[in-house]
């Protein structure tokens, strides 16, 4: 199969079209389908989903003549890359069908002629669509089955389709084998990378990721959103008009409406009629123009990321749910992982993480690296070889043992391109002439760890300037064009004054690097944070520099020392590469402050960068090596695209003056000494918007450990805005919010001590409550044993319902799952917004006891609610807000007790009428008989002391004389009934 990602745009449109529409520059190699037999095709529209999420999928089924009811064949579902359609994998489908497989191809929702919106491989939508297609295959007599409704099926795809195959195998246990290619493990780590921290894994390309911060991969993300923002014929049909639907290849995507596999006829939402503007829904058009084919939450996440360049919990939630990282332990289907060595989008570390996660549960995993990826094409020889590897994987794992076509066991070895010293210039292929085969991927299944060679590097402490707005910026890789600068000038473009460099001595013998090197740095920053980019250059004896793969390692550093004489030491993992550093060459570690492909800080400053341990003899560059046996030589392909080179020159000129959006600096402040005793402190916090509206003004309060704080106020008081600032979802305009003494803000590490439930449950309806909780915790990257899952489930009172699908839950049950989710990990600070919505009275009572008990353990709870009676009975302390300002703060007793209402208890109930007459005779006093006793509202003219004296003087025996006012009364008195 072709292992290069296909964008859906014809390669003959040239590199410019590929760059704009898919972020890849590829040429279409001739198909080498094994036409062992005749293959027929069946076109069909297949409905999937329900309600507002229902779609019609445009499919083509390839059926070999040998597949019959008497001799059923295994099936393969082929998923296309982002921006593509079923036409993108047509050649691969014909090849597999020629080998005897029933092959299903389709255009994913939001692509080609299929209807619906893009969900980024969301388990609720795209993964559910895959299960629908498997259902269709299960109904066919010519497809081999393992049981009723269970076809023998494999799934393969590149990039977008590769992630779908991983997620599909995790969520649908009918998938029997998968072959994901050049895809991601974590979309969060891919689009917001920060390769800092110690690597614990023994595999050669293990890459750490800061879970709380990252450097936004702005150019790649922009290209993706650009592809999905262009409405297609299918989308126009959904907006209310007609229009003949075509996919991005310009070919008719409607097919003939065939009914193969029980599919529906062509959907009415894509009629084959002239477009009629009068039928278009204006609201739908506005949504389409703003977000194109993306779902609204994805569109909002992109717009937030593009505007701020900051990883927020909201953005992470969108990306994490489309990431296989959290569900790899579910995959039991044998997995062939294929990754490219020239890929600035999804590097080798993403495949490494997938391999480790899948193999950890004993699932069979084979890892293949090839010379290519999103930035460069593979050679013809390697393309054919990889196609055979994928087909061989399916032959062994999908065919019966007595099937003569089953072939040999492909095993679980490790393939990688033979390292060479060639650069990765435009059109060249590094290591494309040979492959190296090792017995196993090092470090998996308790196998031998990858070997690492330590090489001494040297260099002084150096200042590194980051310019205002990040301009001018270094140029290393242009998405889809690879190391463009290396192709045109022999070296990447580094800006003088913006980088520090550290080098080895000339190598006495060649060193072949296979994986991710690592080095320890010492960094200081005046602001306590830094955005840097680490690279490993190959420097020849004549000074010529080559940047292998054109790859860089972004670093989002926080908590740095501001003193250059006492810098903070950090471990940095460099990009995963396969490269041979020849004898006499030098390895050069470069740490720069800018890179045109990423979001950069707006403010200028100067960092101090040095090697860690320089005062104690220096540090070492640890480089991984893998021993293996080289395969037979093959031809080396070198492709040059004149149009791409012209476009690249234009891009270089344009990128030199690129102005990035402003981005606030992450600032880590000094820890407050009483931080552990004061879990939350607001100090002069103001949030103003560009239109002049001030949502919160000069808000100051603090919450002590063990308190249950109620946040009260009418609509528009600023409660939700305050909670969103606390959680790091938005930034305050002025002031400071500290959590356990640390400054709180987007990506702040201290927010890991906070559990929250704000603005909706966000649960996946087709999963059980337990699965929702498991996925949520897995997305945090923390150990499963730290979740305290059963404790949270018990606290929320979910019972046996925890294992039922969420779509069958009542609103109250959904609310309780969300509260259990907030309690996972037993956070020290729990923030709940309207936690009793949808709960019945017994459940509200139970929730009240839960929150009190939770705070009694020394933890702190903050509750925002409009149910004042619940706040009164649940909370120990209250902050009352109105019009964005705090108007009162104190214990519930303090707030309730400030006012003129008192409860009068009498020794002799018969004195009630006489006491009422005495009190009613005082200025402004009104009296009411209640079940609790006599309640007198003293107003503002009679003091409590005067009232008590009047009763004593009248010889009324008083047993009790206490302030008596409901929280609701106090609230209305404080904020006014209007």
From TrEMBL:
Residue intervals of the ABC transporter domain: 680-908
Membrane-traversing stretches: 639-660
Gene3D superfamilies associated with the record: alpha/beta hydrolase, Galactose-binding domain-like, P-loop containing nucleotide triphosphate hydrolases
SUPFAM superfamilies according to UniProt: alpha/beta-Hydrolases, Galactose-binding domain-like, P-loop containing nucleoside triphosphate hydrolases
Top-rank taxon: Bacteria
Pfam families: ABC_tran, Peptidase_S15, PepX_C
Signal sequence coordinates: 1-35
Spans annotated as Disordered: 238-276
One example GO MF annotation: ATP hydrolysis activity
Composition bias, Acidic residues: 245-254
Keywords of the record: ATP-binding, Hydrolase, Membrane, Nucleotide-binding, Signal, Transmembrane, Transmembrane helix, Transport
InterPro entries, A to Z: AAA+_ATPase, AB_hydrolase_fold, ABC_transporter-like_ATP-bd, ABC_transporter-like_CS, Galactose-bd-like_sf, P-loop_NTPase, Xaa-Pro-like_dom, Xaa-Pro_dipept_C
Annotated family: Belongs to the ABC transporter superfamily.
Protein name: ABC-2 type transport system ATP-binding protein
């Amino acid at each position: 199969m072709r292992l290069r990602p296909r964008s859906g745009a014809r390669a003959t449109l040239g590199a410019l079209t590929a760059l704009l529409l898919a972020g890849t520059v590829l040429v279409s190699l001739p198909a080498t389908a094994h036409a062992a037999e005749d293959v027929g095709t069946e076109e069909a529209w297949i409905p999937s989903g329900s309600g507002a999420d229902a779609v019609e999928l445009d499919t083509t089924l390839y059926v070999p003549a040998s597949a019959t009811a008497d001799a059923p064949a295994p099936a393969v579902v082929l998923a296309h890359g982002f921006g593509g359609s079923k036409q993108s994998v047509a050649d691969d489908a014909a090849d597999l069908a020629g080998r005897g497989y029933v092959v299903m191809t389709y255009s994913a929702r939001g692509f080609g002629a299929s209807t619906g919106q893009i969900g980024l491989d969301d388990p609720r939508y795209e993964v559910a669509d895959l299960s629908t297609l498997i259902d269709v295959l299960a109904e066919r007599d010519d497809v081999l089955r393992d049981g009723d409704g269970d076809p023998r099926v494999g799934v393969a795809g590149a990039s977008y389709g590769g992630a779908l195959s991983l997620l599909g195998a995790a969520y649908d246990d009918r998938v029997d084998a998968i072959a994901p290619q050049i895809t991601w493990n974590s979309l969060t780590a891919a689009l917001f990378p920060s390769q800092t921290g110690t690597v614990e894994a023994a595999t050669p390309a293990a890459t750490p990721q800061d879970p709380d911060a990252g450097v936004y991969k702005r150019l790649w993300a922009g290209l993706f959103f650009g592809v999905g923002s262009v409405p297609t014929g299918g989308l126009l049909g959904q907006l209310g008009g007609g229009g003949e639907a075509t996919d991005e290849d310009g070919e008719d995507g409607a097919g003939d409406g065939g009914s193969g596999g029980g599919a529906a006829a062509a959907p009415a939402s894509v009629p084959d009629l002239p477009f009629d503007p009068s039928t278009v829904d204006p609201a739908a058009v506005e949504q389409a123009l703003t977000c194109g084919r993306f779902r609204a939450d994805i569109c909002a996440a992109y717009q937030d990321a593009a505007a701020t360049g900051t990883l927020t919990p909201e953005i992470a939630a969108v990306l994490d749910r489309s990431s296989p990282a959290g569900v790899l332990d579910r995959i039991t289907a044998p997995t062939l992982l294929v990754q490219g060595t020239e890929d600035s989008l999804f590097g080798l570390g993403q495949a490494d993480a997938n391999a480790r996660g899948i193999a950890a549960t004993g699932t069979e995993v084979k890892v293949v690296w090839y010379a290519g990826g999103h930035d460069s094409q593979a050679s013809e020889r390697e393309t054919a070889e990889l196609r055979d590897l994928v087909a061989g994987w399916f032959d062994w794992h999908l065919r019966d043992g007595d099937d003569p076509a089953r072939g040999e066991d492909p095993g679980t070895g490790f393939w990688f391109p033979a390292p060479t010293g060639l650069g990765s210039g435009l059109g060249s292929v590094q290591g494309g002439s040979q492959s190296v085969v090792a017995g196993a991927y090092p470090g998996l299944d308790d196998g031998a760890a990858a070997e690492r060679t330590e090489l001494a590097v040297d260099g002084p402490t150096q200042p590194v300037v980051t310019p205002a707005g990040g301009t001018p910026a270094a140029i290393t890789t242009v998405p889809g064009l690879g190391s463009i600068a290396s192709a045109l000038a022999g070296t990447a473009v580094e800006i003088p004054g913006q980088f520090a460099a550290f080098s080895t001595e000339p190598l006495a013998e060649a060193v072949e690097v296979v994986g991710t090197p690592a080095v320890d740095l010492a960094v200081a920053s005046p602001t306590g944070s830094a955005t840097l980019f680490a690279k490993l250059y190959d420097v020849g004896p004549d000074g010529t520099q080559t940047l292998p793969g054109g790859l860089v390692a972004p670093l989002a550093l926080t908590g740095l020392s501001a003193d250059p004489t006492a810098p903070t030491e950090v471990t940095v993992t460099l990009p995963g590469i396969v490269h041979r550093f020849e004898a006499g060459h030098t390895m050069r570690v470069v740490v720069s402050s800018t890179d045109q492909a990423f979001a950069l800080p707006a403010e200028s400053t100067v960092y101090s960068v040095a090697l860690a341990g320089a005062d104690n003899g220096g540090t070492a560059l640890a480089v991984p090596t893998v021993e293996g046996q080289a395969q037979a030589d093959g031809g080396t392909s070198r492709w040059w695209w004149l149009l791409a080179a012209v476009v690249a020159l234009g891009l270089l000129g344009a990128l030199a003056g690129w102005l990035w959006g402003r981005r606030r600096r992450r600032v880590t402040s000094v820890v407050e000494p009483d931080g552990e005793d004061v879990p939350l402190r607001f100090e002069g916090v103001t949030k103003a918007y560009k239109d002049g509206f001030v949502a919160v003004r000069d808000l100051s309060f603090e919450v002590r450990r063990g308190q249950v704080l109620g946040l009260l106020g009418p609509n528009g008081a600023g409660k939700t805005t305050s909670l969103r600032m606390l959680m790091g979802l938005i930034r305050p305009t002025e002031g400071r919010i500290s959590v356990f003494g640390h400054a709180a803000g987007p990506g702040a590490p201290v927010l890991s001590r906070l559990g929250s439930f704000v603005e909706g449950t966000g649960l996946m309806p087709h999963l059980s409550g337990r699965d929702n909780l498991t996925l949520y915790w897995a997305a945090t990257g923390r150990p499963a044993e730290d979740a305290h899952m059963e404790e949270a489930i018990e606290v929320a009172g979910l019972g046996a319902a925890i294992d039922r699908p969420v779509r069958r839950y009542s609103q109250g049950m959904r609310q309780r799952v969300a509260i259990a989710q907030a309690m996972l990990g037993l956070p020290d600070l729990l923030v709940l917004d309207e936690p009793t919505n949808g709960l019945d009275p017994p459940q509200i009572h139970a929730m009240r006891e839960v929150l009190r008990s939770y705070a009694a353990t020394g933890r702190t709870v903050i509750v925002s609610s409009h149910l004042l009676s619940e706040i009164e009975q649940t909370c120990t302390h209250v902050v009352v807000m109105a019009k964005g300002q705090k108007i009162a703060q104190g214990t519930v007793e303090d707030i309730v007790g400030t006012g003129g209402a008192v409860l009068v208890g009498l020794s002799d109930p018969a004195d009630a009428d006489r006491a009422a007459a005495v009190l009613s005779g005082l200025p402004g006093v009104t009296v009411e008989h209640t079940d609790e006793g006599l309640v007198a509202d003293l107003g503002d003219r009679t003091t409590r002391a005067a009232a008590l004296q009047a009763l004593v003087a009248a010889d009324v025996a008083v047993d009790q004389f206490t302030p008596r006012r409901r929280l609701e009364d106090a609230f209305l008195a404080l904020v006014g009934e209007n």
